[in-house]
Amino acid sequence: MLSLLGDHLLQRLQQQTEGALYQRVFCCLRDAITAGVLAPKTRLPASRDLAKELQVSRNTILNAYEQLQAQGYVEAITGSGTWVVEVLPEDYLNVPRNEVNPHHKHHLDLKALSQRGTVFLENAAASPYQWGAFVPGIPDVTEFPHAEFSKIQLRLSRQPEVSRLIYSSDGGCLELKQALAEYLQVARSVRCDADQILITEGIHQAVDFISRVLCDLDDHVWIEDPGYWGARNILRMNGLNIHPMAVDHEGMIPDLNVPAPKLIFVTPSHQYPLGSHLSISRRRQLLELARIHKSWIIEDDYDSEFRFSGQPFPSLQGLEENTPVIYMGTFSKTIYPALRIGYMVVPKNLVTALKTISAELYRGGHMLTQRALAEFIQEGHYAAHIRRMRLLYTKRRAFLIELIERYLGSDFVHEYSHEAGLHLVLKLPEHVDDIAIAQLALVRGVKVRPLSRYYHQASNSTRGLLLGFACVAEKEMLMAFSVLRQCLKEHQVFAQPDSTGL
């Protein structure tokens, strides 16, 4: 018996007479998606099943699915099949710079939101695309030793302790905090014991928590410019006055002419997004300023595990004894983002208060997962996984740089892109529109982020594209880069004849 989709496609195929059979199937599927016959987040039939229904070869369906994925209409999820994306490529065409996030523009009554909520929504920048070439900041989640981690989880869940099934009021799983304290002391030179660690659901929750607990409305905050839009939006949402600080090859440049800050938000080990390292002199300057003004430095150490050459940079928190620094980290870059486990290392004089407030706000949970993660670390699996991923990412990074230098030129690699992190910055001439290039690339199945979107004010921005390489195999990277290069050429980023063959 034919499915409803099979019936629909057979009817439409009779009207499609041009092109190869797989192209006709692709067009019918694409039209079904854009017309809403296949709704967003709908799973497509297995290729073998659909081929049988349409009485075509399986390769015909596979080729049609691949073209749908290349153009951004579907995404393939390992072990779960092929799914229609939540936001279609057409939704990104002709989008004004400050338009509301396409997730919400058709479904929300903005009058129902508070002023802060409206501003937050208008500045929302989270992409619905979180996998593929060249999504920045995403690790290769397929390479994680899921089998080992699952074995630990299964064993613990068979006869769970009661303490793993009720609310946590101690800032998280004790075993995980102990494992983290040992790891951070060695790997990042962080000065801490297990009691100073609070487990969070990631950097976003940690920034939201700290900005609400340690700041009052209209307090002043210094952030890097360009900087992480996620942190900036949370700080803005919580009613804080944001002061962007320019960034150079030594990291944040403090502007002493602006009001003294309550918080200073920095990414010292690998500035996001440009990649520079906060120098020792700037670190000491920030620590001195924080002590003078009774400020707190928020150190976001989001991807410090992935340094591919040279000496690793120790944490800012561990530079001196009793620093006014709250150190934040996450497993999103080393394991996978959906794990939603991060951590804060807080000064000893804040521990008791922050634990109490955290328990009151969030009613801590996920204790079984945290316990499993603790064992995963203690048994050496975590360190081994990071070593393997460093080698893999080193190769992928080198391959991407080779492509850029060969087909665009070495000047296109941003000068701050040091040997670290999960993305590169492709530097572009100031006359080009990096947002328009990113939109065109997305329509063609390549996901990049415009550098100008990371600046506090568009008028002060530098043009460029963030290219994530961690989750992209070399074969896919080559194909995606060819598409991106064509997009750059169409926007007159370069005009030399194409004699490379790419």
What are its keywords?
Aspartate Aminotransferase, domain 1, globular, Arc Repressor Mutant, subunit A, about 500 residues, alpha/beta, three-stranded antiparallel sheet, Aspartate Aminotransferase, domain 2
Q: How would you summarize the topology of this molecule?
A:
Blueprint: H1 4-13, H2 21-34, H3 47-54, H4 58-70, E1 74-77, E2 81-84, H5 115-122, H6 146-158, H7 174-187, E3 197-200, H8 203-214, E4 220-225, H9 229-237, E5 241-248, E6 251-252, E7 263-266, H10 280-293, E8 296-300, E9 325-330, E10 342-345, H11 351-362, H12 367-378, H13 381-407, E11 423-427, H14 434-443, E12 449-450, E13 464-468, H15 474-490
Parallel strand pairs: 4-5, 4-7, 7-8, 8-9
Antiparallel strand pairs: 1-2, 3-10, 5-6, 9-10, 11-13, 12-13
Helix pairs in contact: 1-2, 2-4, 3-4, 5-9, 6-12, 7-12, 8-9, 13-15
Mean pLDDT figure: 88
Strands in their spatial order, largest beta sheet: 3-10-9-8-7-4-5-6
The tally of helices reads 15
Q: What sort of overall outline do the alpha carbons produce when their principal axes are compared?
A: globular
Order of helices and strands: HHHHEEHHHEHEHEEEHEEEHHHEHEEH
**Alpha-beta content class:** alpha/beta
Distance between the termini: 46 Å
The tally of beta strands, per DSSP, is: 13
* Helix fraction by DSSP (H/I, runs of at least 4): 25-40%
How many separate structural domains? 3
Poorly predicted tracts of residues: 94-106
Rg over CA atoms, rounded to whole Å, is 24 Å
Q: How much strand?
A: 5-15%
CATH class of the largest domain: Alpha Beta
CATH superfamily of the largest domain: Type I PLP-dependent aspartate aminotransferase-like (Major domain)
Biggest sheet descriptor: 8 strands, mixed
Pfam families: Aminotran_1_2 (PF00155), GntR (PF00392)
GO molecular function: DNA binding; DNA-binding transcription factor activity; pyridoxal phosphate binding
Protein name: GntR family transcriptional regulator
Family: In the C-terminal section; belongs to the class-I pyridoxal-phosphate-dependent aminotransferase family.
